[in-house]
From TrEMBL:
It is found in: Plastid, Chloroplast. The gene is LOC110702432. GO terms for cellular component: chloroplast. Its EC number is 6.3.2.2. GO terms for biological process: glutathione biosynthetic process. Disulfide bonds join 175-395. It catalyses: L-cysteine + L-glutamate + ATP = gamma-L-glutamyl-L-cysteine + ADP + phosphate + H(+). The keyword Calcium does not apply. Keywords: ATP-binding, Chloroplast, Disulfide bond, Glutathione biosynthesis, Ligase, Nucleotide-binding, Plastid, Transit peptide. Pathway: Sulfur metabolism; glutathione biosynthesis; glutathione from L-cysteine and L-glutamate: step 1/2. This is Glutamate--cysteine ligase. Signal peptide: none annotated. It comes from Chenopodium quinoa. It comes from the Eukaryota.
Length: 511
C-alpha cells in the first residue's frame, strides 16, 4: 500500500553489507598498535579490546547494562583513540547479542493522585530490597536505587521509578523480567497506598508539585537546564519513556543500525505516543514527551544528521560527544559541577574546576549518559523515541526494534526504504509526529503507511529468530491497523466518558 519510498536506492549498492553470521570468531586483540585512523581502514571485524583494556587497568563492562559509578583507573592518561576504542569494544558476534529494556513510570498516592514524596520512595526501595533480596544503592545517607545481578532500579529527577533490565536473549525473558519487576513493586507499593502510572508525561501536576530527588547530578542538571532550553525541567521532572538497548557486531553494522534507528525513530514515537495531557487538560500533542526534547538542550539532542554522512563511524561519534558540554564529574562520592565545560579540556588536564585532574574511562562513560539524541551510542545502541506506557507496550517496544535491527533482511529493507530520505524530511518527521502521530503526511502518503511496512518487517524478523516472539507485536499491530495512537484513545475517553476530567487516566493506565 505504501508508495512513499519511490526512488529509493538500495543501500547495498553504496556501502558494504555486513553479514554478522560470517564474522570471524578469531578476534583481534592488538588494537594498541593501531592509530584511530588505521582502525577505521581495517576490515571491520568484531574487534575485542579486552586485553588492551586490562593492560591499562580498565574494567570490563557488560553491554546493555546501565553505567557504573565505580572508579576505573587507567594506567596512563586517556587519549581520543582510547575513547574510540571504548565504543568499538562493544562489538560482539551475533550469537552474543542481547536485549536490554529500560522503562520509567510515575508513582502516585492512590487516595490523592499526588506524586510520591522521596520519603515514600525510600520506604518503597527499602521494602523491595528486604523482601526480594536487592542490594541498596546509596548516595550519602539517601537510598537512591537498587541492584540485583545485572538489573538495577533507579530514580529519575522527579521520582520516576526506572527499571534498567539485564541483557537478555529473548523477548520472552524480557517480558518475564518486566512482569517480575512489576509484581515486586506492586507487592510493596500497594501496602503503602501507592500506585504506578504508565504514561509519557505527568498528566495532572505542575513542576512545582513534583518532589526533587536527593541526587547530586540532578541538582547540577536542574540549575543548568534553563540556560540551554525552555523545556528541560519538564523533561527531567515530568516525562517517562521506555527504551531498548541493542548490540552490533562491527563498526559497519553499528552504522547501519544507527541510521535505520534514527530514520524510524519518529515512527516509533507515533506508534507509542501516549502523553496527550498536561496539568489536567489536553496539551495539543499526542507525544508531549517527544516534543519536550525539541527544546531541552539542542547541543545534546536531536536526529544527528552527521550519522548519515559517508565519513560516519566511531571516531565521528566520539568527536560529537567531545563537543557536547559536560554536566559533572564524580569524585570522592560527590558530583562536581562541570556544567558547560569541555571534555576535551578534561583530557588535557585543563578543567577549571579540577585543575590537573585527568579523566578515567568511567568519566567518559558517565559523560556519554548525559547525551540525549533520539538514538544514543554507548557500547550498544539505545532506541529512545517512545513514550512510557502500560505493561504490554513495555514488551512491544523491544519486540519492534529487535525484529527490525536483529534480522539482516529486515534491516536491509529498512535501509533501502529510507535511503533517499533527506535530512530535512527526517527532521520534519521528528517535529510533526509528536503532534500528528500516524496522520503525519510524508511524500505521497502518511506515517501510517510507513508504519504498516515497518511492522511487517519487524514481524518477519521476529519470525526468523525462531523464538515465537511475534505475539509481543500485537499492541503495535492494533495501533497500525486502526491508525489510532494510544494518545488519541485517551483523548477520546477524556472528551467522552471521562467528562473532560483527567483523573480517570490514573486508573486506566495503572500498572
Amino acid at each position: 500500500m505504501a508508495l512513499v519510498y519511490q526512488g529509493a536506492v538500495p543501500l547495498s549498492m553504496h556501502t558494504e553489507t555486513v553479514r554478522c553470521e560470517a564474522v570471524s570468531k578469531e578476534i583481534s586483540s592488538n588494537l594498541s598498535f593501531l592509530s584511530s585512523n588505521s582502525v577505521k581502514k581495517t576490515n571491520p571485524l568484531c574487534l575485542d579490546t579486552t586485553k588492551r583494556e586490562r593492560s591499562r587497568g580498565f574494567r570490563t563492562i557488560v553491554a546493555a547494562s546501565p553505567p557504573t559509578e565505580d572508579p576505573i583507573v587507567a594506567a596512563e592518561p586517556l587519549t581520543r583513540e582510547d575513547l574510540v576504542l571504548y565504543l568499538m569494544s562493544g562489538c560482539k558476534p551475533k550469537e552474543n547479542w542481547r536485549i536490554g529494556t529500560e522503562h520509567e513510570k510515575f508513582g502516585f498516592e492512590i487516595d490523592t493522585l499526588r506524586p510520591m514524596k522521596y520519603e515514600q520512595i525510600a520506604e518503597l526501595l527499602n521494602g523491595i530490597a528486604e523482601r526480594f533480596d536487592w542490594d541498596k544503592v546509596m548516595e550519602g545517607d539517601y537510598i537512591i536505587g537498587l541492584k540485583q545481578g545485572k538489573q538495577s532500579i533507579s530514580l529519575e529527577p522527579g521520582g520516576q521509578f526506572e527499571l534498567s533490565g539485564a541483557p537478555l536473549e529473548t523477548l520472552h525473558q524480557t517480558c518475564a523480567e518486566v512482569n517480575s519487576h512489576l509484581y515486586q513493586v506492586k507487592a510493596v507499593a500497594e501496602e503503602m497506598g501507592i500506585g504506578f502510572l504508565g504514561i509519557g508525561f505527568q498528566p495532572k501536576w505542575r513542576i512545582q508539585d513534583i518532589p526533587i530527588m536527593p541526587k547530586g547530578r540532578y541538582e547540577i542538571m536542574r540549575n543548568y537546564m534553563p540556560k540551554v532550553g525552555t523545556l528541560g525541567l519538564d523533561m527531567m521532572f515530568r516525562t517517562c519513556t521506555v527504551q531498548v538497548n541493542l548490540d552490533f557486531c562491527t563498526e559497519a553494522d553499528m552504522i547501519r543500525k544507527f541510521r535505520a534507528g534514527l530514520a524510524l525513530q519518529p515512527i516509533a514515537t507515533a506508534l507509542f505516543a501516549n502523553s496527550p495531557f498536561k496539568e489536567g487538560k489536553p496539551n495539543g500533542y499526542l507525544s508531549m514527551r517527544s516534543h519536550i526534547w525539541s527544546d531541552t538542550d539542542n547541543n545534546r539532542t536531536g536526529m544527528l544528521p552527521f550519522v548519515f554522512d559517508d565519513s560516519f563511524g566511531f571516531e565521528q561519534y566520539v568527536d560529537y560527544a567531545l563537543n557536547v558540554p559536560m554536566y559533572f564529574v564524580y569524585r570522592n562520592n560527590k558530583y562536581v559541577d562541570c556544567s558547560g565545560l569541555s571534555f576535551r579540556d578534561f583530557l588535557e588536564g585543563k578543567l577549571p574546576v579540577l585543575p590537573g585532574e585527568l579523566p578515567t574511562l568511567n568519566d567518559w562513560e558517565n559523560h556519554l549518559t548525559t547525551i540525549f539524541p533520539e538514538v544514543r551510542l554507548k557500547r550498544y545502541l539505545e532506541m529512545r523515541g517512545a513514550d512510557g506506557g502500560p505493561w504490554r507496550r513495555l514488551c512491544a517496544l523491544p519486540a519492534f526494534w529487535v525484529g527490525i535491527l536483529y534480522d539482516e533482511d529486515s534491516l536491509q529493507s529498512v535501509l533501502d526504504m529510507t535511503y533517499d530520505w533527506t535530512n530535512e524530511e527526517r527532521e520534519m518527521l521528528r517535529n510533526k509526529v509528536p503532534k500528528f502521530g500516524l496522520k503525519t503526511p510524508f511524500r505521497d502518503g502518511y506515517v501510517k503507511h510507513i508504519a504498516e511496512d515497518v511492522l511487517k518487517l519487524a514481524k518477519d524478523g521476529l519470525e526468523k529468530r525462531g523464538f515465537k516472539e511475534t505475539g509481543f507485536l500485537n499492541e503495535v499491530a492494533e495501533v497500525v491497523r486502526t491508525g489510532v495512537t494510544p494518545a488519541e484513545r485517551l483523548l477520546e475517553m477524556y472528551h467522552g466518558k471521562w467528562g473532560q476530567n483527567v483523573d480517570p487516566v490514573f486508573e486506566e493506565l495503572l500498572y
